[in-house]
Amino acid sequence: MQRLSAYARLDESEAALSQAKAQAAEGDESWEQWVAEYQRGEALILRLDLTMEVNDGADQVISTTRDGFFVENHVDAPRVERQIAELASGDFAALSADLASRGHEVRADELGELYVHVELDDNVRRRLAEGSHAQDRGRDPQ
Description:
The protein is an alpha+beta fold. Helix content is 47%, strand content 27%. The protein contains 6 helices and 4 strands, in the order βααββαααβα. The protein has a 4-stranded mixed β-sheet. The chain starts with a strand and ends with a helix.
């Protein structure tokens, strides 16, 4: 393996929010919390473009896109990037299977040891900055 990257973009599709609301309506408390945080501007919904660059004599680039990921809307971009790296690791089993189908023998646990390079789209960065200002305005100065 040479590199695993995740590029995060806003996912403002109604499908992602509708699915979360449906899970919340079924009594899933964690989804209830995510939906409430999203509605207050404290969470974002992202689409992740994952790219694996394989350098094992048969160089290939394997890409996949996953959507509907909820993350905290936090001014500290590295904190958000850590959340995204953790979310990207949820796709390691699928990436491992895809690699195997292309002749690369890599176990999901081996992928789990890789550093995930995370890049935030400019719109995500802007929303993080806007969200932090809104949260500051909502705080009671002491």
